[in-house]
Amino acid sequence: MALNSMYENLMGLPLFNGVSYNRISEIVGSTRLAFSKYLPGEKILDAGDPCTRMMFVIGGSVRLTVRNSTDRFVVTQTLEAPTVVSPDYLFGRNTLYPATVTAIDTVSIMQIDKNDFISIIRSDEVCLFNYLNYISTNAQKAIDGVLALTSGSLEERIAFWIIALTQRDGKDITLSCRQRDLYTLFGVQRSSFISTLDGMKERGLIDYTSTEIRVLSRTDLRSVLLKSPD
Fold this sequence. Notes:
Elements: H1 3-11, H2 21-30, E1 33-38, E2 43-45, E3 53-59, E4 61-67, E5 74-80, E6 83-85, E7 100-103, E8 107-113, H3 114-123, H4 125-151, H5 154-164, E9 171-176, H6 179-185, H7 190-202, E10 206-208, E11 212-215, H8 218-222
Antiparallel strand pairs: 1-8, 2-7, 3-6, 3-8, 4-5, 4-7, 5-9, 9-11, 10-11
C-alpha cells in the first residue's frame, strides 16, 4: 500500500478523525506498527482471543461473527476499511475479542500495541477525545437497552439486541436464529412477534425469513431506540 494511501486510510479511521496529515506522519514515524495481509476466507482472529493491540482494517473488508455457547444465536456483520475492530475491549474487565473475524476479500491489517496506543492518546488530545467518545457511546448503549428491555416495545427490544452486538459502522448485519427461540426469549406469542417483524419490514428496517433477520440499515434501526444514530 502506497504511503500516501495508507495515511489517507488512517485519517479516515474514527479514532484518528480530525488528526492532521503531519500528525499522522509523526505517529507513523514514532510508533511500532505491525502490518499483515489476509486472503479471502482466512481467519484473522477467534472470539475469545486476547485483545492486546488495536486492530485497524486499512484495506478490504472483514466479517465479524458473534455467537452464543450453543450456536442458537449468531450475529454477523461486515466492516469495511478504514475501520477498527472492537476497540472497546482493549481495556476493562473483559479484554477478550467478542467476535471471530474473517477476511472477505484481500485484507490489510495494521495493529498498534496497547502500550504504544496509550502513548498516542496521552500525547494527542484529538486521538484521546475520539477514543473516549467511541467507548462512551458504546457504554451508553447499555442504558438504552435496559430501558428497552424493561419497558420498551418488542420492536425496541429487537433493535437493542442487534445494536448491542454490532459496531456503529457494521453493514450487512444478520441475526440467525429460529423464530421460536426468539419469541420465547422475548416472552411473547408467535403472532405478536411476526406482527412486529412485519411492521419493521414494511418500514424498511429489516427483512426476515423463518431462521434469519437481516438488517437493511443499522442507522435506521438505531433510530428506534434513539432519535439520532450513534
